[in-house]
## 1
Amino acid sequence: MQWLLVTDLDNTLVGDEAALHTLNQRLTVARAEKHITLVYSTGRSLTSYRQLCKTASLLPPDLLIASVGTEIYPQGSDHLDTTWANQLQHQWDQALVQQIAAQFDSLVPQVETEQRPFKVSYFLSKAIAPQVIAELSAALEQAGLSTQLIYSGGQDLDILPKAANKGNAMAFVQGQLGIAAPQTIACGDSGNDIALFTGAENRGIIVGNAQPELLHWHSQTPSPYRYLARATYAAGILEGLHYFGVGL
Ligand SMILES: [Mg+2]
């Protein structure tokens, strides 16, 4: 039996140092024995992921999915999986997306390192987010762009090609590795993780400290394959793994 463990980083795996340490220790022992492929799936760019690695003790993953599912890097590599990148080109025009978004005063561009070939990112305040997202979405569609808007953490708005998101990138990795949905466990805490939880039979763990946007979606879209942990951060992941029979 093989397992694919896909976890978000900020406020899911990372956030409680002691719990992360425990999980790392147990994973180090069990990873080979239980045939666990470890994948990090983060909204961060590769640059920002490397910054996090300086402050958080993260085990080297087998694969890194960065920039909200738009970039896949094999273990330790700087080189994108080009098969995945090529699938995202369709109806994507980054310059045009930025030009349209620039018409919205409420969208504040995030730092340059977070603007990626297949991701354009802004800050957007929570109170006006639903209205701005609806208007922006209509404007992008009118321009013939095939995009999706993902709002996360009550502040981050990412515009991605329609084919990209954390869930689609995970499905691509499942296909490459030949690991089926019932052996796949995804963990997350916020809006950009919803895509990780939509695949019919994928197992999902929502950590106890999850954001309201994810908890709301979870309550509206229940699934017997998704576990809402009581424990927070990495301790929530451990609790969920135990629930799904992968006790570490
Ligand atoms: Mg997170």
Note: Residues 90-161 form a domain with the Hypothetical Protein Ta0175; Chain: A, domain 2 fold (CATH 3.90.1070.10).
## 2
Amino acid sequence: MKYDFTTKIDRSNTGAFKYDFMPEPLRGSGIVPMTVADMEFSAPPEVNEAVAQAAYHGCYGYTGADRAYLDAIKLWQRTRHDWEIEDDWYVVTNGVVQALGIAVRAFTEPEDSVLIMTPVYHPFYGAVEDNGRKLVTSALTEKDARYEIDFDDLEAKAADPRVKLLLLCSPHNPIGRVWSADELKRISDICIKNGVVVVSDEIHNDLIMPGYAHTTFAKIEGAADNCIVCTAISKTFNLAGLSCSNIFVPNEELRKRFSKEASVSGCGCVPYIARFATIAAYTKGAEWLDELISVVDGNFRLVYDFIASRLPEFNVTKAEGTYLAWIDMRSLGLGHEELNAFMAEKAMIADNDGEMFGIAGDGFRRWNLALPRKELEAALIRLEKAVKEFKK
Ligand SMILES: Cc1ncc(COP(=O)(O)O)c(C=O)c1O
């Protein structure tokens, strides 16, 4: 490996949510958390160098998407996703969650409804409900630890004339599906037929495990005119704290509405440091990303093998993308609070409670596997020991 994915990095006293806001009894314990979706790895050194140079320059003024910036994001989408972007499709926001809220306000009225597929990344709920819109959910169906879209249900829900928008998570957090081009085509056709605009949150689009392929929603035949595609450097290169996302809206009318609401929400600048980080990441970060994917894939394999051989009472969803593992622990028979306490106090594991992502997540845990393998091994061994003691 050219890059370092093994050193344990002390992130305490940096304000990191994962560390400095970790609940007791784990805070300060030295245990590496597997909660919030950022990574326990340094960003690519090429990015760190560009950020340091930008800092030394010293003028942290208002900054926009200049030629070098647009060229870098276009190059990345072309080479990594085989997607040609036009300059004027681009809108900056200071995060994808912010873009979801902007889209809800831009494309719906207060009496309208917004469709999501559950379980899903928890801010999808807030983007709808906290903006005063009605939430309509279509539950993903689970079979043999794999999730699928219930297309009959999705179609029935999309046919409700009050439903104006679909928030699509592609790849899907927390269940790790990388939707196939066929599935995306079916979603697109249903939405076009029913006048439902699609917001495709593709923040995990670069984190695709070997053997799978991500398709940008706008590349699906007929979809470009009916969608907003949300991308970012944040998940791919561990740069979430730079608060910068690249949103693409190919259709002019939709873009006007989205841009207006983005402007009202105070968007317009590319954060100064993010400009330099983005250019470095998208022009020099491909090799680092390839190594990262092999490390995350290895971590998934460790979890699958360990659980299959030593904790067979649990099931792990086979992740096709993201660095998030979705683990079914319902067989422990613990109530919601009891399972939380068991993980924190007995297994000494800081992970996410599956119920955060919707009621169907009760009894599940989400583990963030972007951490050094040794730390993951230690967590699995602690879990095994806690389960053995629990069963005594
Ligand atoms: C699906 C999804 N969308 C958006 C975000 C967060 O995006 P941002 O930090 O750009 O607001 C996350 C973070 O975990 C995510 O998983």
Note: The domain at 48-284 is CATH 3.40.640.10 (Aspartate Aminotransferase; domain 2).
